[in-house]
Amino acid sequence: MKFRGLLAAVIVLAALGGAAWWSERKEKADAAKPAADTTPKILAVPEDQFQQIDLVKKTGDTTELSKADGKWKIVQPKPLAADPDAVNSLVTSLSSVASDRLIEEKATDLSSYGLNTPSEEVKIKRKDGKVQTLLIGDDTPTGSGTFAKLEGDPRVFTIATYVKSGLDKTSKDLRDRRLLTFNSDKLTRVDLTAKGQSVEFGKNNQNEWQILKPRPLRADGLQVDELVRKLRDAKMDLSGSDEDAKKAVAGFSTGTRVALATVTDANGNQEIEVRKDKDKNYYAKSSAVEGIYKVISDFGEGLDKGLDDFRNKKLFDFGWNDPTKLEIRTGTAQVTYQKSGDKWMSGSKQMEAPSIQAVVDKLRDLTATKLLDSGNGAAILEATVTSNDAKRVEKISVWKQADKYYAKREGEPTVYELEAKAVEDLQKAAGEVKEFQPPKSGKK
């Protein structure tokens, strides 16, 4: 019995000693390995040091970007304008490439990571002459990351999949896809030919859009701004194949012209023509870039507009700039309201501000249901509105013919047909303007 007890004690002691030895060995081994949460930087380059970026795919596809005079351009596979936002995003990604973790300190077999023949090489040439190349290999077995290393550095890391996708770019991704490259802030003229009409827009002294041709007319600034936005944002579709590109050329050549637009800024003119094929696909050809491209239908439809779509149907231009003076004549009665500070005055009398505001609102809302080229009648109401620090003075006259109301702006031939209710509401508001009454003090 004593022997058995001694044997058991020896076995237990040996087990404890072996566990202690294994624990000590494991601690030393773990100490030699990088911590699992260590995420050292693979690449760090100041953004102002980038001079050239080469993106070389395993397939042989190469995109070369070069910076000159502060602007990026695509050099390879052929000279192209670069999209500043897309390239700046690439530069930001490359300026600080962090790893998910360090896999091996001194890798000798790069083939197991796909780094002997990388799926992509990203070469950065800096202003100081230094060249750094990031190698991107295979995805990890779990698919949660990708192996990567810096050329000349023996360490192998993993990077997140979103980092890889941020660097996986081609010239299609990085080129300027705008069909027109004008500066909308410096735009001075827009010409649009559509629906069998040619319309020219220009800015007046108050920087507002006006119709210049076919004849001087008031323009709906919001509609012209929307036209400019569509022209500015028009982009080529580069997602298709070479076969799709051929279809675009064929579709344009056999299609029906929808619109021809010309924009003029400080750098000159740019022109774009849009056509539609029998399947209602839209294609565009621009003077600013080479080629013919499919475009979204929203762009084609946005240019398919005629003169009346851009005419201003509002009777007054003062918009949300509140007037400082109103002159209203109905029949033989005429009143003048002048704003002084935050008070409306009629001569020496202070008027009730809300009742004046009601008249202003009705004048602001006067909108034509139809525009006519001529017409006239005996005025039943005249209104003159002074706004914009007295720089804008607008006068209208309204007359009634049968059961319809019409109006004209002083000095303009256009006749605005108005809704009867809108005129009658204005007349009612004008008749309800009241003199200001101070609040009566309460008695205790």
Architecture overview:
This protein is α+β, with helices and mostly antiparallel strands and 444 residues long. The protein has three domains: 41-174, Immunoglobulin-like, CATH 2.60.40; 184-310, no CATH class; 325-431, Sandwich (Immunoglobulin-like), CATH 2.60.40. The protein is 26% helix and 36% strand. The strands form four sheets. The protein has a nine-stranded antiparallel β-sheet with strand order 5-4-3-2-8-9-10-11-7. A hairpin with a 2-residue loop joins strand 3 and strand 4 (71-76). Helix 9 (353-364) packs antiparallel against helix 10 (420-431). The chain is elongated.
Summary?
By secondary structure, the chain is α+β, with helices and mostly antiparallel strands.
Largest beta sheet: strand ordering: 5-4-3-2-8-9-10-11-7
pLDDT < 50 stretches: 25-37
Shape label: elongated
CATH architecture of the largest domain: Sandwich
Radius of gyration from the CA trace?
Answer: 37 Å
How many domains comprise the coordinates?
Answer: 3
Content of β-strand: 35-45%
The CATH class of the largest domain is: Mainly Beta
- SS content category: alpha+beta
Count of separate DSSP helical elements: 10
The overall average pLDDT, rounded, is 89
- Residues in helix, %: 25-40%
Report the sheet with the most strands, covering strand number, pairing sense and barrel closure.
9 strands, antiparallel
- Do you know the CATH topology of the largest domain? Immunoglobulin-like
Amino-to-carboxy terminus distance: 112 Å
Number of strands: 28
